[in-house]
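User: Fold this; tokens only.

Assistant: Input:
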Amino acid sequence: MRTSRSRSVSQELQSISRSLASIVRTIKRLGPALAAAARAPETPAARRPRQLSAERRAALKLQGQYIGHVRKLSLRQRARVKKLRSAKGVRAAIRFAMKMAPS
């Protein structure tokens, strides 16, 4: 008659055997994928990001300032700022939004 100790050892050995079999199956599946990856042509070098002109960089900076100030405003205040922006431009809208912002 087997003892509980020998049963646990045999169970552990079976568990190890199942794990190793699983690893072998995984490696067999991985082999063709690795071979295909090795045969694939190399990817082209990553493209450099486009250089921003000074004018575009300044416009993006203004846009960020505008969005940053408008986010803090209520919907009614935002509508007033947007109306001013369409009438007088972004810089005036930023100044107006800064004045309206809660402290």
